[in-house]
Design a protein that fits this description.
about 55% helix; 4 strands; alpha/beta; about 130 residues
């Protein structure tokens, strides 16, 4: 049994418990089409090196489109990394990429800060509902 098949078994077992998995940095480094074909992942994260310049570089845009298309054929959702401008976000929408992450969406913040913001938002919504 190869390490790839062991990884696939491990992923399948955890998916049975409700976990979901992403193949990160697809198109760069060690993330290969073989991994995509053989690992039961839910998401394909398109490497930011293709996304970052896709508004100016037709080859990068074509790479993003191709990775998204292959993901679709395989029943996977796609996530674009390094989305830093509204222009790139709009291009990703046209292509049909499911999710985006990067400074153009939001700056990273601590979990504690996110939780505080969510609690404050829920409290404000409760107050609005009570006054209606």
């Amino acid at each position: 049994m190869t390490s790839l098949s062991k990884a696939a078994e491990f992923i399948a077992a955890l998916r049975g418990l409700g976990c979901r998995f992403a193949l990160d940095d697809f198109g760069a480094g060690v993330s290969s089409f073989s991994y995509l074909k053989h690992l039961p992942v839910d998401f394909v994260k398109i490497d930011g090196s293709f996304v970052r310049d896709m508004a100016q570089d037709p080859v990068d845009r074509a790479m993003v489109q191709a990775i998204h298309s292959i993901g679709r054929v395989m029943g996977k959702q796609t996530i674009a990394e390094s989305v830093e401008t509204v222009e790139i976000l709009d291009l990703l929408r046209v292509i049909g990429v499911d999710y985006a992450q990067g400074y153009g969406i939001a700056r990273p913040e601590s979990f504690e800060r996110m939780l505080e913001d969510q609690v404050a938002e829920l409290g404000a919504a409760a107050l609005r509902s009570a006054s209606d």
